[in-house]
Amino acid sequence: MNDDYHMVISVPNGETGWGGVADDAPFHGFDIFPVGSHSSCIVILVGWRVEEDEKPTRPPGSTVVELDGTQAWLEQRRGTVEHQEMVNEIVSFSAPVRTVFADGQAIMVAPADEVPKVRKIYQQLLKSLSFKKEDPAGHSS
Fold this sequence. Notes:
Layout: E1 7-8, E2 17-19, E3 27-32, E4 41-48, E5 63-67, E6 70-81, E7 84-97, E8 100-111, H1 115-128, E9 130-131
């Protein structure tokens, strides 16, 4: 649970979430390098929206996805890096937290042959991701 963002996310059993963001950074997040992979990663980033014109917009061709407590959309991309087909999946989200918004992304990068295994971990993370509302007494629900 991240108390600042009222965000809950669980790293799947057997995997490790690696922090790399300084405490005073304007955003927070972590990375997962799936066990047994040398070329895949999952990155979670979240930060406060400072200016309303920074509001994320739904990219053309993306699909709406369900996340608990927020709106989100998925972009899928494929490309080749050093003769290896790579797949990127990016879920962008925007969640109301008190009187402001927390905007972020969950990004999966994997070689095409590792996608089924890495996508399973990615989907477990996304399923666990939620933004909790505060009750009038100021407690998270």
